[in-house]
Amino acid sequence: MAELIQDEYVAGLRRGNLAEDLLWYVQDCIQSNNEPSRRPEKYRAPSFAWTSVDRSIVDSVWGPRPDKLLLSVDDVVIESAGSDTTGAVKGGYIQTTACFKQFTLRSISLEGQKCWLLQNGKEDLMQSGEYPTRLVSLDVDRIDCDNCNAQGSLFYIPARVSSSQDTEELIDTYLLLEHIREAEYSRIGIAIVQYVSYNNAMMAARRDESLVSCLSYKAERHLYTFRIN
């Protein structure tokens, strides 16, 4: 596989394009048989890889290629289950440096479909006419919002920038994470932002940002180094 793609194989992603390849999404949280998407009970891949989810359609985020990425992949560790580095894995993580913010999540029903809202406490961070929740795509919808919100375990990373229609820079994609243990997080989905006006709310300072669990924190640039497993 590595020879075929002319790159290092990382649990289904490409090492040379890993920061951008992290921004895949699951279409409507379903599989091809219309069953809900799920992470298998037996470990198969790190959460940052699309191979970790039984799903229908997985792709990179829609729209033009980004003007720049806001997260860097500093290190990759993949523990193969055997001698084949493109086969099954039994563990792994990426170490990344990025800015990230705490958020809360709530579900609502929209036209009979379960959808999601990102919030800062009780304030909605994104609105888009009648369909605010179409901008949030979870990998699986089995998440205990009340418990996660109470523990303060949900965070998002501003991931990429593109030029908006009014030529201002738009942070258009955010990677959604759940805190698992000290300095380690698990991917839970992505959020798509369509308007520059949302960025101010998304990137507003939170209290006690320096207390976030991480390997290191650069206060002058609000950058954290941590792992996604």
Q: Could you describe the 3D structure shown?
A:
With 229 residues, the chain is mainly beta. Helix content is 10%, strand content 41%. It contains four helices and 17 strands. It has helices at residues 2-5, 18-21, 145-151, 196-203, and strands at residues 9-10, 13-14, 24-26, 58-60, 68-69, 72-80, 89-98, 101-102, 104-110, 113-120, 123-124, 136-138, 154-163, 169-181, 184-192, 216-218, 223-228. The strands form four sheets. Strands 5, 6, 7, 8, 12, 13, 14, 15, 16 and 17 form a ten-stranded mixed sheet that branches. Strands 9-10-11 form a three-stranded antiparallel sheet. The protein is globular, with a radius of gyration of 17 Å. The two termini are 22 Å apart.
What is the helical fraction, as a range of percent? 10-25%
Write down the overall geometry. globular
Which residues form runs of ≥5 with pLDDT under 50?
128-133
Strand count:
17
Cα-to-Cα separation, first versus last residue: 22 Å
Mean of pLDDT: 81
User: What string gives the helices and strands in order?
Assistant: HEEHEEEEEEEEEEHEEEHEE
Q: Structural class of the helices, strands and pairings? A: mainly beta
Number of helices: 4
Described by strand count, sense and barrel closure, the largest sheet is:
10 strands, mixed
Residue share in β-strands: 35-45%
Nearest-angstrom radius of gyration? 17 Å
